[in-house]
Every structure is written in structure tokens, then in C-alpha cells.
Amino acid sequence: MELSPPSDVDGAPSPFRSGFVALIGRPNVGKSTLLNQLVGEKVAITSPVAQTTRNRLRAILTTPQAQLVLLDTPGIHKPHHLLGQRLVQSARGAIGEVDVVLLLVDGSQPAGRGDAFIVELLSQSRTPVHLALNKADQVAPDQQDDLLASYQALLAPALTWPLHRCSALTGAGCPDLVEALAADLPPGPHLYPADAVSDQPEQLLLGELIREQVLHHTREEVPHSVAVRVERIVEDGPRTAVLATVVVERSSQKGILIGKGGQMLRTIGQGARLQMQKVFDGPVYLELFVKVVPNWRSHPGRLAELGYRGD
Ligand code: GDP
Ligand code: MG
To answer: What is the DSSP letter of 175?
Structure first.
């Protein structure tokens, strides 16, 4: 694998490079975790529950040599209802629009049929692809070769995508990965200010921080039925007040979210508030409402209202 930065034949320093990198992979392989690791800040929410990521998010990583605009995409999987279909469309759409694709897989497991499906999908596009075997921290040294071989077999014989090993959790292998991706970007200027980490509107990030707490504290049917709408963000001296509505599909889910004597909603609000205080670097007052919108996931109009578009 060639990891040294490119330089001109006469040895002149290589030009600054910039462009878009799509993170593609099955749910739960660690795409959002990697994004946060690479930009060194929490820009995407993560959880052990599949399908955590719903919105396409741009995270920005600037090094002395390059600026990478990373697109976190929802995991590719078999769509079950309208929301699922939109998530897959969104991931597919990203492939054609970027300079490089980073296909992330769970490298602690041998390659499977789901991986073959994505490899097939990506091999149809002309965009260069890098394959990264994530979760390297969970691989014993004597398993490494077998696991690597299973992914090499997946690409053989036609595809010559560079293979990388990394851990989004510990950061191991990440600097080499960034260098290799940057080398595949075209020469170009900064696309965002050098200190930017995300282009996501504050409102969306705050909504995602609330949804993350819901994912952590509830189970089964609740997590997938939840959407969050941040209604207002008010600067009030050093304090920021945030008003948000948590939307669920059924009144039984509303009951679970509020909990006995409002205990669950307080726990969710407290967790989200602590995260928000890091974002604002100051005290936050958070008020949460819970609202039932029957079948919001299956109605195009309601999906759009909540910010989920199929683009
Ligand atoms: P996504 O669905 O691909 O965005 O996956 P997430 O980033 O939400 O991660 C799914 C789960 O895998 C979370 O519980 C993460 O903590 C975990 N995870 C992600 N990357 C790593 C890694 O490198 N090592 C280990 N051990 N766990 C990881
Ligand atoms: Mg994700």
C-alpha cells in the first residue's frame, strides 16, 4: 500500500487537495463513530441500535495537506418501509456525488453476504473506493490474517481497492487512513473554514442529541418510531434555552417516553442537556414535549416536515 503523500516528479511539494468522501457501510459497522474520531468532536450520534443515523451529515476534517468533507450516510440495508427506502436512496445518491468512497466494514467479523451486496453496488460506479476494516481493537492477532483474507476474497479478482485496518473507537490506523483518502482527492482549495467540523445546522445536531438519549434509554419499538423537532433555541444571557418536541407514533410509546411520574423524560432531558452544554460551552435549559403523530414514518409529507428527504 502506498501511503507517502504524492509529490511532483521534480520533488516539489504536492498541492493542497480537497473534496468529498462518502462513508458507506452496513448499519453498526462504526461509520458515525469513525466520523467523530476523525474530526475529534462529536458531530454524529452513535448507538448499538442499528439505523441510528437518519440525516446525511457533512463532517469536515482539515489537515495541513488537505480538506476532507466526509458524508455520513445511513447504513445500506434491505428497506422495510418508506423511511428505510429513503435511507437507502440517500446512501446510493451519495456514491455518485463524491470524489472518494470509504467502504467501512466490521473487520472483527468475516466478510458476509451483506458486504458482497455493497461491493457489487460500489463496483458499478467509477468513484475510487477504499475498504477499511474497522473494529481492529476487537481482533486477536492470530485472527487478523483470516479476516483480511475473507475481505480480499470479496474483492478478487477484479477490484484493486486499497485495504486499511482501523479502530474508530481507539483511533488506531486512522491517521494512515486519512492520508490515503486525501491522496485520492483532486487538487483544490479549502471548501470550508479550516476550523469547521460540520455543516449541520445547530438545530439538527441538538435534535440528534435528544434522539441519541432516547435510543440509549428505551428499547424495542420506541427507538425507531421517534423523531425530534427542535422548535426554538433562545440565547438568554450566558444560558441557552432549547425547546423541542419528541414525536412518536403511538400513545403507548408516549407513555413509555414520559415514564412513571415523568421520570423517563427527565432522564432523557438530563442526558441531552449535558451533551448540549458541551456544544454551547455554557448552561442549557432544555424543555421537552412529547407528541403522537400516528404513522409519521409512512407519510411523505410528515417525513419531509421532520427533515427526512430522499435526496
Ligand atoms: P454506524 O451505524 O455504522 O454509524 O455505527 P455506529 O458508529 O453507530 O457504531 C455502532 C456500534 O459499534 C457502537 O456501539 C460503537 O461504539 C461500536 N463501534 C464503532 N466503531 C468501533 C470500533 O472501532 N471498535 C469497537 N470495539 N466498537 C466500535
Ligand atoms: Mg451512523
So the answer is: H
Q: What is the pTM of this model?
A: 0.68
3-state secondary structure (DSSP) of residue 24: strand
- Cα of 23 vs centre of ligand 2, distance in Å, is 10
How far, in Å, from the CA of 56 to the mean position of ligand 2? Answer: 10
- Is any ligand 1 atom within 6 A of the Cβ of residue 167? yes
- pLDDT of 139 higher than 80: yes
Ligand 1 atom at shortest distance from the alpha carbon of 134: 23
Helix (H) or strand (E) holding 229: strand 227-236
Q: What is the sign of the dihedral through the CA atoms of 26, 27, 29 and 34?
A: positive
- Domains, the chain, with CATH or none: 17-183 (3.40.50.300), 202-305 (3.30.300.20)
Task: Look at ligand 1, atom 20, and give the residue with the nearest C-alpha.
Answer: 30
What's the mean per-residue pLDDT of the chain?
83
pLDDT of residue 311: 37
